[in-house]
Amino acid sequence: MTEKASVPGPRRDLAMHNDWWVSGWEQVLPRQGFPLTMLIGTACQPGFTGSLDDLVHEIFDGHWDMIGGDLDGSLTFSWADEEWDYEEAPEGREACEAACWERFTAMLTTAGFPVPTTVRDLSELYLTWGLARREETPDGTRWSMPTVLPLPGDLLPLDPELAKRLDSIRWTMRTGPLVDTLIDHLVDVLGEPAETLTSLDRLAAATGQDVDDVRLALAELVESGDARVQRGEEPADAERLEAHRRFRLVMDWEHFHEHRIQVSRGD
Question: How many CA atoms lie within 13 Å of 55's alpha carbon, on the beta-carbon side?
Answer without folding.
Answer: 27
